[in-house]
## 1
Amino acid sequence: MSVRPTTLALLLFFGTTFLFFSLFAPRFATASNMENLMSGFSFLAILAIGQSFPILLRGIDLSIGAIVALAGMVAFDLTLIFHVPGYLVLPAALAAATLAGTLNGALIVYLRLQPFIATLATLAVYRGLVYSISGRQLVRGLSTTPITDRWITDLETYYDLGSAVGLSRFIKFPWFPLSFFVMLALLAVFQSVLITTRFGRDIYAVGGNLEAARLAGINTRRTTIAAYAICGFCAGIAALILVARLTTSTEALGTGMELTAIAAAVIGGVSLSGGVGSVFGPAIGAFLLGVILLGLTLLGVSQFVQQILTGAILLGAIGYDRLLVVRRQRRTAVFLAERA
Amino acid sequence: MRLQLRLLGGLAIAVALALPAHAADKVKIGLITKFPVPFYSTMEEAAKKYAAAHPEIELVTGQGQAATDIEGQIALIESMITQGVKGMAITPVDPTVAPALDKAVAAGIKVVLVDNSIPNWKGATALVSTNNLNGGKIAGEYLKTVLKSGDKIGILQGVPGVPALDDRVTGMMQGLGDLKVDVVGKGATNCTLELGTSVAEDILTAHPDLKAIYSACGPPIPGAVKAISNAGIANDKIILVGFDACCGEIEAIKSGAEDASVAQFPAKMGELGIDTVAKAIRGEAVNVNVDTGAGLVTLKNVKDFE
């Protein structure tokens, strides 16, 4: 698979950036900053992992920011209005998010809509739904009532691994947030799904060439719907992490996050032309964005410049992706010409 | 022995005197503002000026991207903790940043809220803000001088549920005192031009005989001006009063389209915000509620607010 050189380049870029900020940004290489990086960007990595599936299918999901808000508001309403215990709230919020993702997939498959258009529409629908079910609007005073259910708030837990393995005697070791391990678990599961299962192979086949995949007997519809469902599910997980972090939810939760997640996925080497990429890359991509944003903030660079740099890096990643695609096409053309 | 001690003491004093102030450990103070609009830029400028006049203070600043950028503000708070600030002044973008501020307080950082309060949050050292209720009263008292009992008025709310903005409406009603006006329309604008236009249009369509419009924030005002002219109503037929004297209001007041606005003093907030943080760090007693004042802007004094 042609993933390797891209991933290597990405890791190299990540390492260089990390080293650069460690040397030049004050307090970048501190335990506290690493905690900020892990707790502030694990949910973004999870969103990027989810977003990889639609993009691998040559699609896109613009609605994940709204799905985050939807899952968050479901958790908010169930907990604070209906006093549902947390162990039921968590699966309910995830179910809502997965359902929203499934609906995206169904619209794309059965109405044959462009993923861009379909998810742009559902972005509006889901966000509107959030406002209409918002307990913050419906019940006075709820907007300032924090969620205290341990099942939810315990998602924001930090582990002192440094003391556990005895490293803390030598250096100040960061405490690891639970969200980081959730991210690692999702990464392991979905990466092995992509590599070892038939569903994973189907994803690459459908994304590489939809028509060929159909002719090869792959159930392209089911594959597509499943990919969008996974994307929704990941948005649900990210939402629960955010809700635990904020101890509440807001109507605007997740606004604009779809674009950052797409950026992370593309930077992580998932080709916008489909069929190429992993979920490992997007996770690195998310943390790369995190390293850059945190580093620039510590250097005192204004947020406008930060946005420009993020955009420039995205442009670079897309340009590199195009280059690889063009090269691949040329190679195929040469191969076919030689055979003819 | 005694001589040695005395010499040592003298030496210590000499060293202390010889060391310039900035060589001593500077106190790092953070300022986090909501998002890029002139209001917060003015606040930041004033804070920087204050820091420049107080060499013992090292100011670090940060700003979010939008009114909904909660994650961005939390990241800034965490970054400030990492940078080792001793205190911070912050304009909280939403009450949901409270858990992040709790972390700061737990790290021994003095937190002073500026401009907006966080209801029910106990961690703040002080609140430095315009008393919005008083600001609203100023608007109400002005309206009382130009309206008659029974006049129909419309209200462009800010973001319902945000106490600072709700207070501006409550204060205005209080300022009207015993004058009984008829509030015929009321709608949330989220302090945006777009919603300001449509809410004003809706009210004007239903009540063409409206006498006044009050807006709880600045951005909806140009929208209301447009809605009034679109409805074919003459400028001077409707009294338009805003809050903030920002975002096109100064121009509207000068052109006569808007009659008055309640100005806040962001520069005062920046200055007093950092001052309060510095005092708290030094362990001095601080006022829990620092009022930065408000003033009425009309055509007469608009020059002073440009």
Note: The radius of gyration of chain A is 21 Å.
## 2
Amino acid sequence: MWLDKLINALTSIRLTVLCLALAIVLVFLGTLAQVDKGIFIVQKEFFQSIIVISDLRILNHKVPIIFPGGYLIGLILIINLIAAHFKRFGFHLQKIGLLLTHFGILVLLVGQILIDHLHIESSIRLVEGESKNYSESYTKCELAFVKISGADFDIVVSIPESYLYKGNVIRHPQMPYEIRINEYYENSQIERLSGQSNERGAATLGIGASLRVIPLPPITTTDRRNAPSAIIELIGNNVPKGTWLVSFFLDDGQTFNVGNEQWQMFLRPERYYKPYYITLLDFTHEKYPGTDIPKNFSSRVKLTNPQTKEEREVLIYMNNPLRYGGETYYQGSFDPGDDRVSILQVVKNPAWTTPYIACALVGFGMALHFILKLSAFVKEQKKR
Amino acid sequence: MKKWLSYLIVLLLGLWVLASLRPPAPRNGFDYANFGKLPALLNGRIQPLDSVSRNCLLQIRSKPSVRLKNGETLLPSEWLAEVLFNPSKADDREIFVVDHLELLGLLKLGEGKQLVSFDQLKPHFAEIEKQAQRAQQVEPARRTTFEKQVVKLYSGLVVFQKLKNSLYPEEYGSLQTAITDLKANLGSGLEAFRAKESNKEFNQENLNKLVQTLQKWEMASQMAYPRLILVKELKQGNSQWLSHGEVVNQIIHNESLNLPRAIDAYIAMNVAYQKNDPNGFNKAVLDYQQWLATNFPEQFSKSKSESFFNNFAPFAKAREIYLLAFLFACISLFNLTEWLRKSSFNILALAFIIHTFGIIYRMTLEGRPPVTNLYSSAVFVGWTIALIGLIVERAYPYGISVLVAAVGGFTTQIIAHYLSLTGDTMEVLRAVLDTNFWLATHVVTIALGYGAVYVAGLFAIVYILLGVFTKRLTKEIASLLNRVVYGVMCFAILFSFLGTVLGGIWADQSWGRFWGWDPKENGALIIVLWTAIFLHCRWGKLVSERGLMNLAIFGNIVTSWSWFGVNMLGVGLHSYGFMDTAVFWLIVFIASQLAIIGLGSLPLRFWKSHPEQAYSQTPNKSPQTE
């Protein structure tokens, strides 16, 4: 009895309409919320969530919002769609278009959930002539310890951002010492000490002795990133005693000795290493004559893969990415201060084909459905 | 006889359109229309001087024309000729508009809207600059009205100043004086320079004079706005646009006084202009055009075509004819005479032909698909509405579709007109947008989707207004409208969905992000979801016929939000800029649609006519089979 009711409810077209209506309200609220919160937070809070618990500023009043999130609505829609097809539709040749359309929507919804979870974006900044075998995260940082071995390779121990919090002690078999995080600032700025005698540096060792850290609120927009800093301490035998300042702003690593080993530490954007190298051969930045309006950017790169012995040149330009090794390289941006610098956007997205398939299915399905209905309608008109 | 009349009206309208193809008549003998055809390079594209002057005027006074205090008007190119050939006169023209109270107070200009000249503003330059530079620090969306006005005035002054220095350093007063001065100082100056270089005795005064002259050109060259001098590059023979400063540099570099043909031509025009010799001026323009036609046929033909397009103004013409079609359709709807309906149809068809001609002409001119910016989207959405209206009217000749098409065509062209006042409507496209494939697929399908939703909404409005206010909503008409709204909604969801997903695919192609929940994307998604709701409500028979009509009208709100509303949020990658007055009109529009929905929700006893009144109050049986 109650099962029948549940099945009826799950397969009902009323549920479809309810979900669509809720989706509209959600998307609308999510658009409004972007004005204050920025796109990044809104994506997480509104669209990639089960329940939205947030607030919206309307005429300078904060209005709390509790609403079904994007995943919840999407999930119910998926269940409703599949259930309705089993329960109500059956298979008719007349309805093949509808079937294709709905199947396409399903691919789109499922694909979008997959993309949310599998999609990784990073970037490579290259000066002409430079080669790199890694890209860097836009948002995340890592604390890296590099053992200078003098050989062809260095040993790198990289600690992801999630381990960096006050009081955490980190050990790693490759490191003959432990690291304690005394302070961690998600976003910060660093400043040189003004030179007054009562001022003390952020750390006791390294460059941190002459700098101080100003904590800043975390960034919420997509066009800027957090610049973290941390105060850390090394624990173990033969390590320098004292605290170190590591910061996003300190590009050069700080060197220290542990016994006769030489190590360097960095707080830098998280790196994604690849089994191949990208070399920037030439970057061109074309402008419309007599203006600063960009017309086209293009990067001629060389792709070198020692494993497969591949070596070839590729031209990457606007709307024409390079797809290689499960990743896609886009012409991202440029450095306004240096016309030899190209910034490539690197996207790893195993589900990238789903929208293409969905688009084809839905487009074809809808067109077919409407043509079939239209011809039936015209026939009927003629009969009259 | 009456059938004959309906064709006569269209014939007369056609003649009116053809008559306007003639270029504007010469003023005091000066053929400014012809002068306006000369090519120049501005904002990265070749355009006729006519467009240069219109685009500059838009920046200076938000209108592409000059209306003087005495009611007299100057043609855009007439004004440009004055700016270039007699700048001190142009300084005296009251072309700057100041109407903000605080700004008027700041400039001590009295009350009410004021037209002021460059000369009148001169004493206040320092103050305007100070205020504007402070205001420019503020994010555009957060500026107060005063800040916006002062920035606008300041940038207008800058544009005017730049324009005056585009042919020669303004202080010379004319090109010929400037060139004569250059020639006079060049020989002796270079001689002194060479003597100094080889440590011989040299004339310091001559050297100083040359340096001063060159400094003047250099300063002016940095200001120069359009590039007016078209030459062939020596090495490869490519055509190249130069500013006058670059020409002077070449002269110094080559030590030869061979001036480019363009300079000679502009000297001839300038001399004749100052002597008030129209024949000389017209001849100089013609001679230069002949030279351009042989040496730079491509560039000249492009600028001529655009100048023709500016003069013809097909979208403005179509707008007026749509209005006429609307009036005829209104009358025919109540008067029920076939010849009036037929006339309204024919008039609409004429407007549509001109509209189509305009779109195709613009596409060829730009080498682009029909929609490239917000302005052209308004032009194209109007075209879509008119097209669907014409087709439906052919199938169901009740005069209603003409009404819908005419309202849609007219309103969208009004919107397009106001959007055209924000700047160059054929501006070059930034790198990511510079792709005809995606513009042709994504942008065009989205615009088709907008058009279709509006058509459905307009038909639904007709349904409700006819029912509430007239006795004309018979069973036949009601079922017709119901079917049309449904059919058009099917088109709407197809195009909106495809357009939205294609946009995602474009984003995936250009930066690897299929969907980013950007406001413009969200707007498009809401349209798709809304049309889906409409269709599912109909298929599931969840709401009555009137309910469906109300849903379709709400589609107008949803589409307007997606088309314009999201741009007003000032966030997102797709922002076109902030539009203040548009916010007001959007709110008015939304309120009007809500009011009509309110009417549609009135109990049937308040309706003057409705098919269900006659029978019973049971939910309607839709004549459309599922």
Note: Chain A touches chain B through 60 residues (CB under 8 Å).
## 3
Amino acid sequence: MVLDGMIVHMSKYVAVLMAAMYTYWNFRCFAVNEEKRRKLLKKQNQLMFLNHVLSFAVMFLKTGDEKLLWFCGVQAVFLWCFLVVYGKLYRNRSALLANNMCFLLSVGFIILTRLSYDKAVRQFGIVVCSAAVTLLIPFIICRMWQLSRIPWLYAALGLGLLIAVYAAGDASYGAQLSLKFGEAAVQPSEFVKISFVFFVSAMFYQSTDIRQIFITSIIAALHVGILVISKDLGSALIFFATYVFMVFVATSDWIYLALGLLGGYGASVAAWRLFSHVQVRVMAWKNPWADIDNRGYQITQSLFAIGTGGWFGSGLCQGMPKKIPVVEKDFILAAVSEEMGALFAMCVLLVCLGCFIQFMMTACEMEAMFYKLIAFGLGAEYIVQIFLTAGGVTKFIPSTGVTFPLISYGGSSILSTFILFSVIQGLYILKRDEEEG
Amino acid sequence: MKAVFKREKKRKREKTPKQKADRSILLLAYAMAALFLCLMGHVGYFLTVSREEVINNPYNNARLDNFARTVERGKILSSDRTVLAMTENREGIGEIRVYPFGALFSHVVGYSSRGKTGLEELGNFYLLSSHMNPVSQIGEALAGRKNPGDQIITTLDLELQQAASDALGDRKGAVVAMEPDTGRVLVMVSKPDFDSNAIADTWESIVSKEDQAPLVNRAVQGLYPPGSIFKILTVLEYIKEHPDDYDQYHYDCDGYFKYGDYTLPCYHKTAHGSQNLTQAFANSCNGAFASLGLQLDKKAMAETAEQLLFNREQPIALAYSQSRFSMNEEAPGWEVLQTAIGQGMTQMTPMHSLMVTAAIANRGVLMNPFFIQQVENALGEPVKRFEPAAYGALMEEGQAEILKDMMVRVVTEGTGSALRTEGYTAAGKTGSAQFETGKETHAWFTGFAPAENPRIAVTVIVEEGGSGGQTAAPVARKIFDVYLGR
């Protein structure tokens, strides 16, 4: 009895400590030699599994649900298998990136299980399938140079999917996001993110003269425009920012960055003037307390959750994250913060930032502009998305309704993030293989 | 040799496209990292600075109630540290909330068993937080015991509250008092009241008394026609429009004011005779104010009303009703003259009247009214102090001085005679507000004392009490006597 109490009360402090150590080692890895790094990576794995088991132990003690125990076991086995298989298949993979993926997945499993066991089971199935399917991607990236020759295929694919959603999509929360296939709903914009970066990279690989930039910009503007009229503002913003950054990297010309940022500012003001749903979001951000029953409800509940949880959180199954609407998708970070602690949530953000930095380092290592732009573009999409969701949940910026990659519930988001990480892994492996000759 | 060196130097300066791209990548990566630091700084600021204010919200009660599983609700104390509310653990029953003074603080302290009201709601977060030393907290938690919650020291004055309650007696109405220079709320009485201890048992019978509405805190939620206390605003508007010659105003009162088919009598049809502005205010002459009202700029009048917190959010921490002023530029003459004397469509709460009065007493500056002066842990060690804070100026200092002088004349020469005393000089305004034909008027008094150096402001309303000067002013007198007699 006393032991139970100890675990329930103390585990949140232990979990925060473990997350902090994990995060510290993540950044430490950038600075140490090969041998030391290998040790740190192993310790990271131990911490992740320890945290996973401890979290499920708390949930089991609070709910007494024995299903949780086997679910925890199955998840742990999967994560372990993923790490081992990846290592065996790709000797030159980035083990740190694989670790971070597993850490984020583990956090997602924990918080989703807490929120909804059924959804967590579904999510787990999707994760397993996504992992299996994307296992081959690094292999393909390393061998298919032809990927750089088909920009118009990417453009056609991306625009076609987006138009299909606009024409036949299902509306959820005021935005047209998904296509329904029987039971399953697919969010094509998640995959168009990837094809978009491939398109832009392939175009700029061919040339960066003004004509090429003009043509590419028109296609990019079409992507963003369709997303805007589908009211998928979060995705539109991600595409837009990524494109502006990619032009800047491809040309190293400040004028393009300035033009892009200026255009973005103009477009935001125009969107605010033209669309009532944009005004609603901005109002809900500026003063959610004025309309707390209605438009301000979600963000205020999120702030209540984060604030009431505090630095160390309420402990798993001891808060009320389900009071936040759409908590398992766009607002999952608020649930993590409420129950696992704001410090834990910050560690998660720092781990994501660590992934991003690794993406950028990979981009810098690439010789060919095509690969460089892919690594950079995907990294930019990833970090902009994290910023939008984390900023929206904490009222740093207006909420744009995007998911937290690898943690939020949702199959399309999971699969596309797996693809994103696998492509980068492919580039990383490509570079290492080259070096070995 | 030199040429080679030059070319070499040039190559160093002019970077390859790859190097340039890498530099751009690094730059953007740094920018994103900086943005994330800002985001985390924002979260850190939220958790250290704005957290308490944000989460102590009725919409977050479900989460805060969760705290009650590990914390025993703390005490609420009066300003002299007498217990007004505490939690007792009774054998066989479990935790119950005890209010030693029964009905005396039923509205302002409120209750916490049937939803939460009053300070039980306002201070909910503090009462359910424990600031005992962390080691003993963890020890208690592991032993499965609750930690004692923090206690809040209110600004409420027990003796004064008792005096106000006694003075009001069994009549329906409200009494509020605060310090004009700090905003500390000293008294908040609303009648009819109820015994907070028995709220759970007697809920049905309390709720069924609809015509009595005992659960309504009349001091902050009761909207009444202001009657003649509104003349404060009318005078202020007149002074604003005639800053140099307001004292030239003159009116001959024969007891009635005629406007078309419409006749407006003075109270008890008294003929006040020749009146200047100060006399008209002191005698509360309706005719003078109706005629004066018709001369006023309606748009400017509406602006002055907003400046005095009509139709606006007010700095009241408890659940309150917003006062209403609806006269616009198109208003017909009879509505204007009704509005000028505080009848018409205007409605205000006693607390609102108190804030305007306190601002007059405090050179035009309103201090935010507050109820909690300190939060302490269960051992009495301070956790948090609340300092007086200014809301802002409701009027200019000179205007406040003029109004103050006129309010002194109300007491020395006019309808506020109940407050004439050797002990101190009081200032104020009486009101007798009609609300339904055939019923007795609501009796108002709002004022402060001593006039030279105001220490306390009071607003009293007695429903259907008749004349403000005869019914409400004596209640204020009792409170001034007790407070200034110390």
Note: The interface with chain A takes residues 17-18, 20-26, 28-29, 32-33, 35-36, 38-40, 42-43, 46-47, 51, 54-55, 57, 59-60, 62-64, 66, 138, 141-142, 144 of chain B (CB under 8 Å).
